[in-house]
Amino acid sequence: MAGLHKSDFANPVINWVDSRLPIFTMMQKEYGVFPTPKNFNYFWNFGALAMVCLMIMMLTGIFLAMYYQPNADLAFGSVQHIMRDVNYGWLMRYVHQNGASMFFIVTYIHIFRGLYYGSYKAPRELLWMLGVIILILMMATAFMGYVLPWGQMSYWGATVITNLFSAFPVVGKYIVTLLWGGFSVDQPTLNRFFALHYLLPFVLVGVIFLHVAALHIVGSNNPLGIDVKSPQDTVPFHPYYTIKDSVGVCVFLMIWAAFVCFMPNFLGDANNFIPANPLQTPADIVPEWYFLPYYAILRSVPNKLLGVCMMFGSLLVLFILPWLDTSRVRSARFRPIYRVVIWLWVISFVVLGICGAHKPEGIWVILSRVATLYYFAHFLVILPILGKIERPLPLPESISNPVVARSGAIAALVAIVFGLAAMQPARAEMAEPKMPEQKWSFDGVFGTVDMASAQRGFKVYSEVCAACHGMKFLHYRDLAGIGLSPEQIKGIAAAVTVPQGLNDAGEPKEGQGTPANQFRSPFQNDLAARAGNNGALPPDLSLIVNAREHGADYIYALMVGFGDAPKDFKMQDGMSFNMYFPGHQIAMPQPLHDGQVTFIDGSPSNIAQQAKDVVTFLYWASNPEETERKALGVRVVLYLGFMACLTYALKRKVWAAIH
Amino acid sequence: MADPTAASTVDPHGGHPADPSKRDMLELMATAGAAILGAAIVWPLVSSMNPAKDVLALSSVEVDLTPIQAGQGIVVSWQGKPIFVRHRTPEEIKSAKDVKPSELGDPQTDAARVKAGHDQWLVLVGICTHLGCIPLGNKPADVRGEFGGYFCPCHGSQYDTSGRIRKGPAPTNLAVPPYAFESDSKIKIG
Question: Is the ipTM of this complex over 0.95?
Answer without folding.
Answer: no
